[in-house]
Design brief:
This protein is an alpha+beta fold and 198 residues long. Helix content is 45%, strand content 18%. The protein is built from eight helices and seven strands, in the order αβααββαααββααββ. A hairpin with a 7-residue loop joins strand 2 and strand 3.
């Protein structure tokens, strides 16, 4: 269910969605965390103790295989979208709007917000800082692999727009300076961001 949300969620929210008591849900979430499928973090509150937040682990492979997204519909839409200059501009703009909708506004940091959003989308991101402070993000899974095979230019342009839209919200001063698509079957696409707050 957390992967469906595409963002971290608290124990109480999960309990409410599942119609269960928070203590029972917490037990299951702790087990998923111990199995490496979820990551637990603490979020400070203005009153009371910090609350537990749960997000999908970047390396999670439920069912033994990397996450996949959107299936046949995404492939068909990719196939139906011609990669003309005008259409690609429209696709990137739409992606940017989607990225703004997906970006969390309450993350502990801009870097965590980017990581959590990309994780929620199924990209299994690995982030590291260069010596000059630029953030390099390697995506170890392509959840859109089947759609990319139908129309790489359109799908990767959409993802470029989504990435820019996320940055618009989490740190408007940050700049996406590199976006290098790779083979969707082996993944490893690279995103580089300069000026992103830690």
């Amino acid at each position: 269910m957390i992967s469906d949300l595409g963002r971290p969620a608290g124990t109480d929210e999960m309990a409410q969605r599942l119609g269960m008591h928070p203590n029972g849900v917490r037990t299951h979430l702790e087990r998923l965390c111990a199995a490496g499928l979820l990551v637990k973090s603490r979020k400070a509150q203005t009153r009371g103790r910090p609350r537990d937040m749960w997000s999908v682990s970047a390396g999670a492979e439920p069912g033994g295989s990397p996450p996949r997204a959107y299936g046949d519909l995404a492939r068909w839409l990719a196939r139906a979208t011609p990669p003309t200059k005008t259409r690609l501009r429209e696709v990137e703009n739409a992606g940017r709007e989607i990225g703004r909708e997906l970006a969390p506004t309450d993350a502990e940091s801009a870097e965590a917000a980017l990581r959590d959003t990309l994780t929620g989308l199924g990209f299994q991101p690995a982030l590291k800082r260069n010596g000059d402070g630029a953030l390099c993000c390697r995506l170890d899974n392509c959840p859109y692999r089947n759609s990319v095979k139908e129309n790489r230019e359109v799908v990767c342009t959409l993802h470029l727009g989504i990435s820019r839209g996320i940055l618009d919200v989490i740190d408007p001063r940050a700049e996406l300076t590199g976006f290098v698509p790779k083979d969707p079957d082996t993944a490893g696409c690279e995103i580089q961001v300069e000026g992103l707050k830690g």
